[in-house]
Amino acid sequence: MTIKRALISVSDKTGVIELAQGLNQLNITILSTGGTARLLQEAGITVTEVSDYTGFPEMLDGRVKTLHPKIHGGILARRNIPDHMSALEEANIPAIDLVVINLYPFSETIAKPDCSIEDAIENIDIGGPTLIRAAAKNYRHVTVATNPEDYAFLLTEIKSANGTIGLDHRFRLAQKAFSHTASYDSAISNYLTAIDVNNHHHTFPDQLNLNFSMRQALRYGENPHQAAAFYRDLAPAQGSLANYTQLQGKALSYNNIADTDTAWECVKTFDRPACVIVKHANPCGVATADTLLSAYQLAFATDTTSAFGGIIAFNHTLDGPTISAVIKQFVEVIVAPALTDEAKQILAQKENIRVLTAPLKSFNNQFDLKRVGGGILVQTPDSHNITVKELKVVTKVQPTAQQLQDFLFAWRVAKFIKSNAIVFCENGQTLGIGAGQMSRVDSARIATIKAQQANLALSNSVVASDAFFPFRDGLDVVVEAGAKAIIQPGGSVRDTEVIAAADEHGVAMVFSGIRHFRH
Is residue 389 flagged as an active site residue? Predict the structure, then answer.
């Protein structure tokens, strides 16, 4: 279908002048509205304003501009149906072959801290979604573009295809257009169902609409017989793993991404050079040090067996000496904010290792999601990082300055370990980790065994428990192993019994007042 007439009406003016200039050069008639028309006219582009075209002026402060039969008839007519074309001719309605639209900035408006409900309402586009849906519905005869990134392609295709756009391209653009309006309406619904008429906000909307775009198909799911794909937010935050760049290595699997996300989120919580090694959804070694190499060596020493085939994350630029040490062992994925040229050259010798970079910026998802049968669990993210001022000493023995720092380290690690979680540490190094047991005392025993297997002394260690000790037995296990200080949330009906046990052992214990279950 030869493109003879285009309608352009955009809020995001990116690239629109260049697009319109190209259409002018191809002798394509351009219709436009309001600010877009003025912008194009000022750029010396021949444009017909929609109000002049329809003979009906814009009204209601611009709320009504394109809602007119001469516009929608020209878009919706099916060119292969004689009755449709006769109806256009009788009504003196020319066909519109190309529709270039993007919508009022609703999401950007509601993101402003001082956004009022009136501001939000006025940024709900009416004519734009109607035009997009009309053009996308009639994709067999009309081309629709909603993203400035597609403008250059449009011009190239029109020039190379004798003024037409291929059906396959029109269909793909229509798919993108319907996705665009779906996400727009979702944002409106999420906003409006999370407030009342007085603009009082609630934590959760009454109807939660989620929109993600496919980043890539994955090799398989948790198991090879399961298909899988990775979808990401339409506008993922910079510090999120979704913005990764893969520098080398085999294709990523479902488990690769899930475990890498755990490692990445954990390592980002530290300022000093840090390394986190994750295996099967749990950190098996974490350390901070003066250098990345030292941090890696300390993290690896926690559990050399589990680290085999693990995911390794760093929070500073990955250098040659560190990567030389890492690749002595089998590793699935390495992620860091950046790599030196030397590190890249060394890794090139191990072409199967998946190497990712991602921006090192703190962020939190708006919600954490977990699928269950017939529904979805939604919660705010566990983003709390404890400070020394929040710790409450509950024992006769006071923690030392070093133990206080180890409390903060161990507590950050425990947040990323499946419950029940027990973490031994000392001087910014994990010594033994117990994860995912039904009994807290069993997690304590496993953490002790892990340290013994690694020949790491626990005689001066600090222990973090992600939730309270329901009985004294768990505390007895870690103290008998060598722990000298314990951090736990507190809140058990047997807190008095557990505190008495700590005093009996002559160890320090603090309550954090916050729990870190991770299921």
Answer: no
Q: Are 437 and 460 in contact (CB under 8 A)?
A: no
Which has the closest alpha carbon to 425: 456, 386, 385? 456
pLDDT in tens, 266-304: 999 999 999 999 999 999 999 999 999 999 999 999 999
Strands (E), 137-179: 143-145
What are 334-345's pLDDT values in tens digits? 999 999 999 999
CATH code of the domain covering residue 453: 3.40.140.20
176 classed as catalytic: no
- Please indicate, yes or no, whether residues 71 and 176 belong to a single structural domain of this protein: yes
Q: 422 Cβ partners below 8 Å, 6+ apart?
A: 414, 432, 433, 434, 440, 443, 444, 446, 447, 463, 464, 465, 466, 474, 478
**Which listed residue (4, 84, 169, 280) is catalytic?**
280
At residue 61, the pLDDT reads 64
> Is residue 210 in a domain?
no
Tens-place pLDDT, residues 7-38: 999 988 999 999 999 898 888 899 988 888 88
Domain that holds residue 488: 388-511
Give the mean pLDDT of 155-183: 90
pLDDT at 169 over 90: yes
Of 192, 213, 244, which closes a domain? Answer: 192
In a domain, 517, yes or no: no
Are 276 and 135 found together in one domain?
A: no
* Same-domain pairing of 313 and 396: no
Catalytic one of 4, 137, 169, 344: 137
**Could you tell me if residue 372 is inside a domain?**
no
